[in-house]
Amino acid sequence: MSTPTTDIAAIGIPHAPAARAPRSQLTRERTRAAWLFLAPSLVVLLMVAGWPLGRSIFFSFTDASLETIGESTYNMVGLANYFGPYGVFNFAAVNGFWSTDWGMAIKNTFSFALVSVVLETFLGVVFALVLNAEFKGRSFVRAAVLVPWAIPTIVSAKMWAWIMHDQFGVMNALLRSAGIIDQNIAWTADPAFALWSVVLVDVWKTTPFMALLTLAALQMLPRDCYEAAHVDGIHPVKVFFKVTLPLIWPALMVAVIFRLLDALRVFDIIYVMTSNSVDTISMSGFVRREIVDNNYVGFGSAASTVLFLIIAACTLIYLKASRVDLGGEK
Amino acid sequence: MDYNTQRALGKIGLYALVALISLFCLFPFYFAIVTSLKSGTELFSTTLWPAAPSLKNYISLFTVAEQPFGRHIFNSLAVSTLVVVVSLFLGVTAAYALGRIQFKGKGLLLLTVLGVSMFPQVAVLSGMFELMQAIGFYNHWWGLALPYMIFTLPFTIWVLTTFVRGLPKELEEAAIMDGCSPWGIITKVFLPVMWPALVTTGLLAFIAAWNEFMFALTFVLDNTQRTVPVSISLISGADKYEIPWGKIMAASVLVTLPLIVLVLAFQRKIVGGLTAGAVKG
Questions:
Q1: Is the ipTM of this complex over 0.95?
Q2: In this structure, are residues B234 and B217 in contact, taking their beta carbons and an 8 Å threshold?
């Protein structure tokens, strides 16, 4: 036990990290207080995340159903839910792994995530550049951009499902009167269009998020290099690619990965717009269908565990890429 | 082309782009409002203005007994408020510990918190189902507050920790010298200056809980216990082939308008909160 000291300079909280200072009584008290303050949050996180995650992984090794998990009357089946003839990694499927529903779900989710994030980033940067320019009514437009973000996902899905309705939708009507299509298209039901219709709605809903984050990065840029470029008469497009883009790149990449992780978990927008049909089903949608609708808790949990591992891997890459400051010793 | 024409063209281009962006962002919601005011056969014409605006759709939302929309609004409001209050309380205490006190294992804790916020919610679905049934939270609107913590709590802790870390150290030093306890420091020194951050994170947590769909769809079956997003997704007409679009749009407008008003009122703070949550984090 270190000698208790009353010397304020030796306490070490205000300026030096505690680990390097002698451990005073006050430091110990504060460390104890820290754990005490953290305890409720940790208990809740353990209860809502750690425990259910562990149980879900456990169920993936069983043949549990919604009825048997309450009574604990399920059996252990080993790795059958993963590698068995009906497992998630069914590489022996008649038409190949990618034609199984789970294979389709993986393909759909990654196509959805990649395409929508690329489009959102591109449009987000365009929006941000426009919002960063000076024009009359700028604050109105800045507010307007927030509207899609504020609308609940279910509401945007329903709104767009109505706009894209095959018989009475305004989108078909507009495209037909403009002569772009000559027959109504079932945007959300036709397998050729359904996934891209969902992408369109997601882009509409989340471009504001990208735009606002990009705008925040743009507004932190130093003014002097723009003035220098202006004086030298350099073309604005060149300024954007040589000056602006490299400077906002780190912030943009963090936002992109953040969005990507979000897009990989997609569920509600696809569930509502296309009724979870196999052509558009996402990994999350697949898991919920197997667990809740089909009552294959074990199999569904195996799929959810795979999904968890995929996203965990992406998260680790994200943490590495963004070099998050965890110690708070900037 | 001389300099002035070029400038003029640039201005026109900019305003055209601005108009396009505004149209893109606002049109769908505008069209939802228009649809909600149409009734009868007019619903199936694609006119951009209701010929005979009526509130019939809105009234029918509250008069059909099988789909008690008013009750669903109450459930959503109540569970979202509950989630915000609990998250903020836990978030403030955790943020003080994580943002102000140096101790071993802090980095790992922050990493865990961040990891949970990236969590695919569906990964806990079967485990959460079991837990909700075991503790009697299943099929009650208030029971949803538990799974909602999975996305509101890590976010709240993270943003508040960033905020606390940015506060001047002198604030606390004086209180320590006066022999103030850590709890006293939180309630008397930090809470009064944390209001702006609390409002922002509270609002963002509220919106997240208000919009949540998957848990609400899975853990609540009873029609009186449902929340608004599930309610909207289940609105159906007299027979199953007739989808009442007017009514769905009326419900959509009703649950979105307050949100839009809130978001616009707190515009600056929300953008700040999102930036803290994503870019810095």
A1: no
A2: no
